[in-house]
Specification:
It is built from 9 helices and 9 strands. It is α+β, with helices and mostly antiparallel strands and 236 residues long.
Length: 236
């Protein structure tokens, strides 16, 4: 695994690379200076086939975006009640997807291991140190508009992932959980909205962890074709 700060690369190349990521594009549109602050807290990680990026049980505040290649999310095989399911990925991460956000939002150890696919020769990942976003009252480096962009992106990403589960298992007891969460209806672009978005992101993260725990146990999978169908829905 090769880890380099973004400062090691030409700025124009970095800008082109990050322009495809909504978070960076939205923050740059808000403030070039805030964009620069975030770049200084980011790094590029290159992985060879089979290399681990994240390990279950790790504790940190990094969130990741896959830029190139393919990653597999794996549950702890010992925690699974079904060996064949444990050998399969919980999910497949493709370019453009955000991951690692659950641990960051909930300040809990990572619940899964993420490895580069055995079929990916060169996997490239962008890592962002999100400690700057954790204190909702500290605007010394990242201002309110920037933190609002971040948490809006987190909420959008989590809701998308939960909708994937809901579309596959509409009768499951968790299917409508995220839709029952109260949405913020107060004034926009203020600290009140920031707090509400942060709380909503954490609530969504807890629901997603519950889904992942059931999927990882193998109880949601009827057979091998069901697993295949689900993974395809994750990528659609």
């Amino acid at each position: 695994m090769d880890i380099k700060p973004l400062s090691d690369y030409p700025r124009d190349a970095v800008d082109r690379l990050l322009n495809v990521i909504h978070l960076f594009r939205d923050i740059r549109a808000t403030s070039e200076w805030q964009y620069d602050v975030l770049l200084k807290r980011s790094r590029l990680v290159s992985l060879q086939a089979g290399e681990q990026l994240l390990n279950a049980g790790d504790v940190d505040q990094w969130v990741y975006f896959l830029l190139r290649g393919e990653l597999h999310v794996q549950m702890d095989a010992e925690a699974s009640t079904s060996a064949p399911i444990a050998d399969r990925p919980l999910a497949v991460i493709r370019p453009g997807e955000l991951f690692g956000d659950l641990s960051m939002l909930l300040a809990e150890p990572r619940s899964a291991t993420v490895v580069a696919s055995s079929g990916s020769r060169d996997t490239q990942v962008l890592g962002v140190d999100c400690t700057l976003f954790s204190d909702l009252d500290d605007f010394s480096l990242l201002h309110l508009p920037t933190k609002l962009v971040f948490y809006r992106n987190m909420v959008h990403s989590l809701r998308w992932k939960l909708e994937v589960y809901r579309s596959k298992y509409p009768q499951h007891q968790l299917a409508d959980s995220h839709r029952k969460l109260k949405l913020y209806t107060g004034p926009k672009n203020c600290r009140g909205e920031l707090v509400a978005l942060s709380e909503q992101a954490r609530d969504l993260a807890r629901i997603l962890l519950s889904w992942n725990a059931e999927f990882g146990s193998g109880e949601l999978m009827d057979d091998e074709s069901d697993m295949s169908d689900f993974l395809e829905s994750m990528l659609s």
